[in-house]
Amino acid sequence: MVSLKTIARECGVSVATVSKSLNDQKDISEATKQRVRQTAQALGYLPNAAARALKTNHSYSLAVLFEEDAGKGLTHEYFSMVLTGFMQQAERQGYDITFLNHCVESSRMSYYEYARYRNFEGVVIVCADYRKQGVTDLMNSDLPVVTIDYVHHNCTAVCSNNIKGMEDLVRYIHGQGHRRIAYIHGQMISYVTKDRLASFCRTMEELGLEVSDAYIRTADYLEIEEAARQTEELLALPEPPTCIIYPDDTALIGGRNVIMERGLRIPEDISVAGYDGTRVSQLFHPAITTIRQSANEVGAQAAKRLIDLIQKPRTTLVERVVIEGSLVPGQSVGRPSEGRMSRAAARGRKREGFPTKQSGKKPEN
Amino acid sequence: MVSLKTIARECGVSVATVSKSLNDQKDISEATKQRVRQTAQALGYLPNAAARALKTNHSYSLAVLFEEDAGKGLTHEYFSMVLTGFMQQAERQGYDITFLNHCVESSRMSYYEYARYRNFEGVVIVCADYRKQGVTDLMNSDLPVVTIDYVHHNCTAVCSNNIKGMEDLVRYIHGQGHRRIAYIHGQMISYVTKDRLASFCRTMEELGLEVSDAYIRTADYLEIEEAARQTEELLALPEPPTCIIYPDDTALIGGRNVIMERGLRIPEDISVAGYDGTRVSQLFHPAITTIRQSANEVGAQAAKRLIDLIQKPRTTLVERVVIEGSLVPGQSVGRPSEGRMSRAAARGRKREGFPTKQSGKKPEN
DNA sequence: GTCCGTTTCTTAATCGTTTTCGTGTTTTTA
DNA sequence: TAAAAACACGAAAACGATTAAGAAACGGAC
Q: Which of B253, B348, B353 sits opposite A364 (nearest CB)?
């Protein structure tokens, strides 16, 4: 292991001089600096992060809390994009990131303790159960913490604009002529759901549309079964909706399956919209109308804010940062065919011909 | 910051005694140990990982190389599952994991240098361009390295069994009665593709089926456009295949779109199979026939091997570990309808009725 | 009473850095 | 020419831990 001492011996100077040379301090002559730098290069010297961290109290490393309990964490496109954005920005600023852990050789510590133990300078909570003690302790601690899509009084929060997103979506659907719009929302425990639902209701009201209770339903995020069931029930209503908004693009698939099984066409017979803007959602025919969240940007902003909190604690405010999404029109929301879409049609019709892309290649006959 | 010194002062013993007490060394009396442990607890003492690493040369942290250049890394379900499995196993054994980086305050270092700088004890290469200098340097270095789905002479490799996987898939398809099987494979640069293609050809031969050149095609992984184009060409052949195997479940969607646009039904008119066993693939109706790779297990094994390499360098062999996948039957491969699937039918037919699940709820009329 | 072996604790070195302060030398200024 | 300022470097302490070696105290054996 070649250390400062090695270089010092080689160059015939003191360790202090070597350190200062490599750090480009001003009280070392240019000549010496050159000499030191060259031998450092020649010997293949690499600084030791542990020693540096010990001495300076700066580890230049951030922790990511990414609980996998739900089993959906990393494989959820939104979260993994957030993480990617975070990583890229953090790296650009010279920080590296480690997954927050709580096992140390078979013994447990809290997240906070672990973060302290490893000298993390800050933590981003990407995906966690915010009700758990360990998580709240972390947020209430003296460590800089940034939360994603969750607001806590003493942490900076970076959130996707679910209010605006849902409003855009509803207005777009309304603009296409829909008046009977159903919303199958996700679990109510999350802020995300609350925002979206509130925004849905408010926008509907602003547009002068009434929100029938029968049109508001619940299904898990990322699961298709319940979405499918709820879709069936919606289609069986005396006045079925002409458009259904799903918790997210994946849950939408459950509804889509039910719809297609009934021989209904999207969007000619019924329109559907998702949320998230996942890659797959754009691979379908027709492509899904959805709101694409700027997950990368969410992650990047989180990194910037967190590093600001670390580097300039006084001047950086703990605040809420909102990242705008964007409407992806797709083709799954069309103009409602008011007359044709009767209850009977909805329930039993066998369609002739197959749902084709709105503006696509037709079968060549 | 409460350190050993604080506790020592408080307990009226030396720092060494405190250290030994907390590490449960045998040359300290039980009474003292108790006293030390209690005050440590009371003062909220936490060890300092940096100091410990500096002294012991053990950082208990592993690096993950996960290049995002392709932009598909973390959002690729397979890789993110591998990563998850790796993380969980590593944590269980007391290691934490950090993304390998090469920026330090705006200056670049190589992966190897960064790994040294940060005192990582080992590296797992989950997703990277193995042809790049930085990556090969890393693999050729003295650091313990485990690669995923890639074999390098002096690294332990953990690979999904693509040979067996493809063989199982082909045999299953053959068992359903198919004789004209096409394979749209991924880019040839990867070992994965080579294994699968070789296995495809060998298995076909073993089954006494000829492999027509026209049935072997190329399309990118995870992209639908090329898969769609190739599907069109396959369907336009004088003798179109009765089953098409795609590079992966996502690329399959491209083909599926083309097939459905033509009014063909899956699997009645044509069968399709994917690879990977992604979550979405099982949400479709019909669910996709595919090979599920045990990505979690791949990750977990990689972690185990890597830690073995670190902890018992002499007794641990550098070898190739193969993880078995499993066939997910799905419903997208059915019995071929030899007579009905003529070229004319394939090209222009409009089907009446909509493709329904093989064994599912029918429209209620 | 001396010697030896345990047990229990301390001393001190060390890991690789950073950084304060001091010192000797050179240059500038009055 | 002498005092002041600027420059270039070194000595040493410190960060928080681990650990080899040594020392004090005690008990038992001869």
A: B348
